[in-house]
Amino acid sequence: MPMGVAPIAYLLYTKIMKHNPANPKWLNRDRFILSGGHGSMLLYSILHLSGYNLPLKELKSFRQWKSKTPGHPEYGLTPGVETTTGPLGQGLTNAIGMAVAQKHLGSIFNKKGFNLFDHYIYVEAGDGDLMEGISHEASSYAGHNKLGKVILFYDDNGITIDGPTSLSYSDDVKKRFESYNWHVQIVKDGTDLKDLEKAVKAAQSAKDKPSIIITKTNIGQGSPNKQGTSEVHGSPLGEAELKLTKENLGFPADKKFYIPKEVSKHFASVKVNGKKGRSKMEYNI
Ligand SMILES: Cc1ncc(C[n+]2csc(CCOP(=O)(O)OP(=O)(O)O)c2C)c(N)n1
After folding, report:
1. Residue 131 within a domain
2. Cα separation, 227 vs 237, whole angstroms
């Protein structure tokens, strides 16, 4: 999932979200919730690249005792992790709870031209999240209460832990969310940054409806022999496939934890923009 959803995370953290890696507790920051907590490396890698206080040595200690990179993200342990996720459906539901808080606080404290609470809550959720009963209840509630600040990316990769989603699930997600009164869009190619950005802008304009962007993604994107299969859901690629994947993606096959210089340089702007973007209204609790 971290490979399939990487373009979405990249777009959000570099172009869309109002956030400051140097100040992850800024009250009115946009939030990103990874509801599919099993894909935690998506979050850790994007936080690291964006300049949050999560050094590479923590990524090297992935899933090790006392590291800041546990198998599932934990709130309070890792800067930039907004809520603990792992039990499927919970992240989406917490995100909707955050939108309730945002709307409530905004209704009390926002004044004309001085919006203390106007942030967005972006969520990634996969098939497993949407299968969970809790996601149905929370999504229905969000539509009814017009929680327009929620923008959900549904990682529609057609694959779950044991094989194709058709083994266990045949909901029409588009119709389901339309019936909840959500703004619904489909992006046919989850790697098309332009289409994704267009969809986010449209979602932001739908102010009185939460939004779902159904993105057709490819689990294990870039792995020549394993992408699009449940084999990449939880098992390591293995040395041989890892080598092929790196070659396929244009990385040197012999390097581990390699970040090309141009990537670091490109991401350095996130921290700068975060600082520039912060206004007199950047304050913490
Ligand atoms: C409530 C709950 N039940 C079961 C699990 C175990 N589990 C972890 S990931 C997963 C499958 C998720 O599939 P999907 O959302 O399609 O993720 P992808 O395969 O695309 O990464 C399951 C069943 C869980 N984390 N939470």
Report:
1. yes
2. 10
Domain of 260, in residue numbers: 6-277
| Residue 284, in any domain of the structure | no
- Choose one of 8, 94, 132, 233 to mutate for the ligand 1 pocket test, by most ligand atoms within 8 angstroms of C-beta: 233
Q: Counting every residue, how long is the chain?
A: 285
- Does residue 126 have its Cβ closer than 6 Å to ligand 1? yes
- Summary count for the chain: helices (H), strands (E): 11, 7
Q: 96-137 pLDDT, tens per residue?
A: 999 999 999 999 999 998 889 999 999 999 999 999 999 999
Per-residue pLDDT tens digits for 13-39: 999 999 999 999 989 999 999 999 999
DSSP category for residue 217: -
Greatest alpha-carbon span in the chain:
59
Assign residue 121 the CATH number of its domain. Answer: 3.40.50.970
Cα distance between residue 228 and residue 250, in whole Å: 20
Q: Is the CB of 132 under 6 A from ligand 1?
A: yes
- How far apart (Å, rounded) are the C-alpha atoms in residues 152 and 96? 10
- Domain assignment of residue 282, yes or no: no
- What tokens appear for 64 in the block? 């090790």
Q: Does the residue 285 lie in any domain?
A: no
- pTM (global) more than 0.85: yes
- Judge if the beta carbon of residue 160 lies within 6 A of ligand 1: yes
Q: Is 36 in the pocket of ligand 1 (CB under 6 A)?
A: yes
Under DSSP, the state recorded for 69 is -
